[in-house]
């Protein structure tokens, strides 16, 4: 009887531990998402080819690992400024903002970024004052 009681308590503790640890890790629960306005896209990856296109696509990177962002506006920028926001998805806090001067007839932009802590982050591309595309990435230890 005592063994059966101990086994039941053990099973309950194991189930509670799995539920508790699993619910605290947002990157385990969500698949990275992306958004697009009028076909604009953000791609992320570790390698560029000779024409500066990303060839090793990924949405999962290591802490402090440099990776490329390629933003394709799907048409001329028609604005002289493009801004990237790097956002922590846990609290929607903007961790970094970089503004680029661009030619109004250009349509794409590259940048190299990294994140210092594990988690799920969102990259936001803004042309003028309009969000054109987003992409989430997972940063692992």
Report the sheet-strand fraction. Answer: 35-45%
The major sheet is characterized as: 6 strands, mixed
Count of extended strands: 9
Distance from N terminus to C terminus (CA atoms, Å) equals 45 Å
Approximate helicity band: 10-25%
Order of H and E elements:
HHEEEEEEEEE
> What structural category arises from helix and sheet content?
alpha+beta
Q: What form results from the Cα inertia axes?
A: globular
- Average pLDDT confidence is 85
* Number of helices in the DSSP assignment: 2
Unreliably modeled segments: 16-27
Whole-number radius of gyration? 21 Å
Tell me what you see in this structure.
This protein is α+β, with helices and mostly antiparallel strands and 141 residues long. Helix content is 18%, strand content 43%. The protein is built from 2 helices and 9 strands, in the order H-H-E-E-E-E-E-E-E-E-E. Strands 1, 3, 5, 6, 8 and 9 form a 6-stranded mixed β-sheet that branches. It has a 3-stranded antiparallel β-sheet with strand order 2-4-7, with no helix packed on it. Strand 8 (119-127) and strand 9 form a beta hairpin. The longest helix has 22 residues, at 2-23. The termini are far apart. Mean pLDDT is 85; it is low at 16-27.
Search tags:
141 residues; alpha+beta; globular
Task: Please outline the helices and strands.
Layout (H helix, E strand, L loop, with lengths): L1 H22 L2 H4 L4 E3 L4 E5 L14 E3 L4 E6 L8 E8 L4 E9 L6 E6 L5 E9 L2 E11 L1
Parallel strand pairs: 3-9
Antiparallel strand pairs: 1-9, 2-4, 4-7, 5-6, 5-8, 8-9
Summarize the structure.
By secondary structure, the chain is α+β, with helices and mostly antiparallel strands. 18% of the residues lie in helices and 43% in strands.
